[in-house]
Design goal:
The protein is of the alpha/beta class. The protein contains 15 helices and 14 strands. The strands form 4 sheets. A 7-stranded mixed β-sheet has the order 3-9-8-7-6-4-5, sandwiched between helices. Helix 4 runs antiparallel to helix 11 (about 365-400), helix 7 packs across helix 8 (about 200-210) and helix 12 (about 430-440) packs across helix 13. It is globular. It starts with a strand and ends with a helix. The model is unreliable at about 1-20 (pLDDT under 50). It binds pyridoxal-5'-phosphate. Pyridoxal-5'-phosphate binds near residues 106, 167, 201 and 243.
């Protein structure tokens, strides 16, 4: 164990020897600007507090025996120590503002700073959801205008703006389907069909809403098996959930045929629109028979996501589902915007299934998304899709000679390039490539998803990367892939230049340690 001025230090992983490449170990465990950082409990102590407060005077408690008797157990750090701890940790993050973020199925693109500036205007940033409607007409105008763009771009009838993420939007869409079925007296339809390649949120949403989920297989070329899907249709089907473009990075060409078949048996079509980035301005899901689709504003319309969230997942709805949309929503009456907050028969708003959130959704995201849309214009949005697809195809074609590309023969990809570890020597896998990329200074691509491909590596470069940036990334991935194919043993212990190397991810997921415990055994050493 390593002790230094800031306290207890965990041992670095045993890849150190290789990592240091003959350089001496440092006293601190730091490597120049790459600073080792222990847990806050390890550098602070639970015995002290960071502030001086006089002991509380003796009082008669009115807590009825519920008062605390033990120490609260917070790590005691002075302000500069706490600030430095979090600043050091923040430097260990990879971020879209540091470099290319090739996560597939996630659209991690640049968030233009203009959007931030607009969202921070006090008229948007400093308002409250309970303010009188007359005093927030500008904000309602933003929600309304964004809603019109979303409805127009998707060719749908209406949009529910309040869901706060893609998965929340899925739930909203499925609840609309449920309400529509119940209104028809067909609440007994209990099955939702989901393709094998679906994002995990799709089956989770359907199950959460009380449906039983059945898988639809994929064809060898990576698309939904339309024949198998049609064969399963019947009076127990509530609907299907299909991602288009799908998670293999391919356009589902049969979607219209599928929608017609699902509608013919009385079901509804949910489309997972997380990949709308690849088709915005080129394809209107409404034309393909879609009844509900969420749009991840934080993906397609470039609002921050991940640690920079929150997200926003408006759901566009067909005429069949629009009456069931959740409250509240904004309507324009002459020059005035009103907020419809209650179901009323006289306004024909009596079928809403209820609410998804307390208020109106993510105002900051709406402002950013509208700013992004207006600064691109309709032609610019179309180019977004074209460039996203072009970039992905460039990545695919530049790497298919060193990495297996299972669907490269299915025609051009959409916004994502899919590879696999097929052809790697014994003992080498996708994980080694991901870890090797970390040493090259890149966040790894999505790995082991979609599940339909063994050892999948899914790369989504997005339209905001230049050719130079793509070439740099392609060069790094080529080099790591070639090392894997050559059976380079140093790749098995990568990353060598990251603060932590190979964590036991299974253990971390299955048995997470969520609260710090005094390391009794270690302290006794
Ligand atoms: C991101 C994503 C989702 C979920 O969206 P969140 O905003 O993360 O909840 C669902 N489906 C697909 C295909 C996605 O890529």
């Amino acid at each position: 164990m390593n002790i230094n001025a800031s306290g207890w230090r965990p041992e670095r992983p045993d890849t150190d020897a290789a990592a240091l490449d003959g350089a001496p170990a440092t006293f601190t465990g730091n490597r120049a600007l790459m600073l080792e950082e222990a847990l806050i409990f390890e550098i602070g102590t639970t015995e002290t507090t960071g502030v001086d407060i006089e002991a509380a005077p003796a009082v008669t408690t009115r807590l009825g025996g519920l008062e605390r008797h033990a120490a609260i157990g917070l790590a005691g750090l002075a302000e500069p120590e706490a600030v430095r701890h979090y600043t050091r940790l923040s430097r260990q993050n990879y971020a879209i503002d540091l470099g290319l973020f090739p996560l597939g199925s996630c659209t991690m693109k640049h968030n233009p700073r203009l959007n931030e500036k607009m969202a921070r205007l006090p008229g948007f940033a400093d308002i409250h959801p309970l303010q009188p409607v007359d005093s927030v007409q500008g904000a309602l105008a933003v929600i309304h205008e964004l809603a019109e763009w979303l409805v127009t771009l998707t060719g749908m009838k209406a949009v529910a703006m309040s869901p706060k993420a893609g998965a929340h939007g899925e739930l909203c869409g499925i609840l609309c389907i449920k309400a529509a079925l119940e209104a028809r007296g067909e609440g007994h339809r209990k099955v939702i069909l989901v393709p094998e390649s679906a994002h995990g949120t799709n089956p989770a949403t359907a199950a959460f809403a009380g449906y039983s989920v059945e898988d639809i297989p994929a064809t060898p070329e990576g698309r939904v098996d339309t024949a198998a899907l049609k064969a399963r249709l019947g009076p127990d089907i509530a609907g299907v959930m299909i991602t288009n473009p799908n998670t293999c990075g391919l356009f589902e060409r049969d979607l219209k045929e599928i929608s017609d078949a699902v509608h013919a048996v009385g079901g509804y079509v949910y489309c997972d629109g997380a990949n709308f980035n690849a088709i915005v301005g080129r394809v209107r899901p409404g034309d393909l028979g879609v009844d509900a689709m969420h749009i991840n504003l934080h993906k397609t319309f470039s609002t921050p996501h991940g640690g920079g969230g929150p997200g926003s997942g408006p759901v566009v709805l067909s005429a069949a589902l629009a009456p069931f949309a959740p409250l509240p929503f904004v309507e324009k009456e002459g020059d005035h915007f009103v907020l419809v907050e209650e179901e009323t028969a006289q306004d024909h708003h009596d079928q809403s299934f209820g609410r998804m959130t307390a208020f109106h959704g993510q105002m900051g995201m709406f402002t950013r998304a509208l700013s992004y849309i207006l600064s691109h214009g309709a032609d610019g949005l179309r180019q977004v899709a074209e460039d996203a697809v072009l970039n992905a195809n460039y990545v695919l074609r530049r790497l298919e000679d060193v990495l297996d590309a299972p669907f490269a023969g299915s025609g051009p990809c959409m916004h994502e390039a899919l590879f696999s570890d097929d052809g790697f020597p014994e003992g080498f896998s996708t994980l080694d490539v991901a870890k090797g990329l970390i040493d090259e200074g890149f966040h790894p691509m999505t790995v082991y998803f979609p599940l339909v491909v063994h050892g999948a590596m899914l790369v989504e470069p997005t339209e905001t990367e230049s050719k130079a940036a793509l070439d740099q990334f392609i060069g790094a991935l080529r080099s790591v892939a070639l090392r894997a194919k050559a059976g380079d043993a140093t790749l098995k212990t990568a990353p060598h230049f990251a603060p932590r190397a190979r964590l036991d991810e299974t253990q971390a997921a299955r048995k997470p340690v969520l609260a710090w415990r005094e390391p009794v055994a270690l302290a006794a050493e």
